# Entry
Amino acid sequence: MRQFRPRLAHVSEAIEVQPWCPDMGPPPRVRIYSPSHPPRLLVYTLSDWRLASVMARHDWPDRTIGLQLTIRLPVPELSSRDETFCRTYRWDARVMLVLSTGDPPVGIPRGGDLSRTPPRATSTRQPPAPHHAGGGAG
# Structure
């Protein structure tokens, strides 16, 4: 069976996001996804499409969206063998393709108001969206 490889027309690679620090202003709102059934993506980085699982979504005050991922990347010191890393990339539909949306985030998001939670994404051209808070349990 042939592996799916989306085609790129002169598109750059996924851009890594720096971790938040107090000098950056207000922190992003962070939603954590269940490790048992996280959203899954293909991410174009290091000149290849790589499978990744979303650990968390970071919604920055300037509306930038970061996705904290577990992703397998080559390690030159280990003969370029792939190892699993945690990386946070800025959402970019040109270099990220949502394969599955996974389970809703677990717990209450940090640093934000649940009433302003955007609706769940319905297109593969959108980042994994947080789910609306239910009426009771959280």
In short: The chain has no helices and seven strands. The longest strand covers residues 48-59. The CA atoms of residues 83 and 122 lie 31 Å apart. Residues 24-103 form one domain.
